[in-house]
Task: structure prediction
Amino acid sequence: MLDSAPTPAERLPDLVGDAVLAPRTLPHDAALYLEAEDVDVSSTTAHLAARARKTAPELEAVRDAQRAAERGMAAVAALLANADDEAGPFLSDEHGDVTAERVRRTANAAM
Result:
């Protein structure tokens, strides 16, 4: 039995007014659903202007994320630099094989 609940596209016209401003990247079928319900759809670049500058808290969050990523990459680089492949076909160190899971955990722990 098919679900009779309306899809998001079917609910959308009830959630907006008579007209919407949408980015040019709005999917064509979404625009058609709106227009079929007599909603005027216009393209705008206003969202680009609004996002052209980040606020101070947004910038600090980006910087925090960048610092965390750098710590994670440094830890992974150290793990790989200290590993060797002399004991077999895989990289290993005194703690065992350097697996993808171990690399991921090393990065996460450093972040």
